[in-house]
Each structure stands twice: as structure tokens, then as C-alpha cells.
Sequence to fold (203 residues):
Amino acid sequence: MSLTFYYSPHSSASPVHWTLNELGIPYEKVLIDIKAGDNKKPEFLKLNPNGKVPLIVHDGVAIFESAAIQIYLGETFGVEKGLYPPPGPQRVAAMMWIIWCNASLGEAMSRFGRNLGPWAPEDQRNAKAGEAAKVEILGLLQVLEDALKGRSYLCGDQITIADLHLASWFDYVRMMQIDLTPYPAITAWGSRCTSRPAYANSP
Ligand SMILES: N[C@@H](CCC(=O)N[C@@H](CS)C(=O)NCC(=O)O)C(=O)O
Fold:
């Protein structure tokens, strides 16, 4: 078995990094320096024409998009390791939250960052669009808060890759200084997830 993980620290690759470390499977890490343009070099584009991290290559098969990678790792290794549900309602819940993270919360967070983040170029910012994204984010956080009430993890009593994926994204939510005080269930769940040693080893 060979598995190579192309990553950049503190990026969309971080949730995958955490999953790989939780799974405890052997893998090789390749650091991609985005600032130096490693992700646009022909040898990288040959594997990932999308030109972004994360990317994994498992036994010669290249997979990009973090949500797809997490689902693939869950199906391929996670069930056996107790980190991903077998087919059934809990499997669907895991997939649903991974996709919700990227397509709903992640999309609104990116829009918020692009318009109000300190790194966004001045002439490309739109404060009104940023504020609208923030309203959307708060609504999405309430959806998650309600889902986590009365349960330890997204799919029940057991932590899964869906929790790792979403909890890792909360690094970005905190970095963007979104106040999580009104969301006690999210706060407690986030602490449960990030207190695991593998989180600290997966920048
Ligand atoms: N939807 C993609 C997003 C990937 C992404 O935007 N990665 C960023 C780092 S956070 C990247 O590689 N940016 C380099 C670039 O766009 O040139 C995923 O979840 O994998």
C-alpha cells in the first residue's frame, strides 16, 4: 500500500492531515509551498489539475477536494478503525456533515473572508457582501448547534471523520473571530474533538 499526502499547513489540507494521523495508517507527506507556487508546477498539476491542496495519491489513484478525500479515507480505512460508520443512516449523516462543511459553512466562510478578511485586497472587498455572509454563517452555526444538542458527536456517541473534518474547520471560524459563546453545544463538541492528541500533530 502506498499513500502520499500533499499538503500545506493551516489550510484545507489540515482536516485530512488530522484524519490520516487518527487512522494511524502509513503515509508519506509532501509539503507544498503555495507562496512559492509549488501547486502550479507541471508535476503537481499532472496529479491535480485543480492546482490546490489537499491531494492524496493512494496506490496510484489521485484524489483532490478535501470532502471527497475524507469520504474515501472513511470508506477505505475508517470503518475498520472505528472512525467511519458502515453503510446505513450513520454513514449518510457522516457524508452529509462533511459536504455541509465544505459546500455550506465553508462557502459562506470563504465569502466572509474574501470580503472582510484583513488579507483580502482592498479593491476587491465588499463590506455589505461580507456582512451578508456573516448573517448566513450565524444561521448555519445555529443549524449545527441544534444538531449537536444532546449528542456527543455528529453521528452519535462515537467520533467519526465527519467530526474531525468539521472541527478542524472551526480553526478558521475562530481565526475570523466569530463569537461562539451563543453556541454552547458547538463549543463543548469542539473541545471534545480538539483535545485528542492527533489534532495537535496535524497542522
Ligand atoms: N474545495 C477545496 C479547496 C482547496 C483550496 O482552496 N486549497 C487552498 C489552500 S486552503 C489552495 O491550495 N490554494 C492555492 C491556490 O488556490 O493557488 C478543498 O476542500 O479541497
About this structure: The radius of gyration is 17 Å. Residues 89-116 form the longest helix (28 residues).
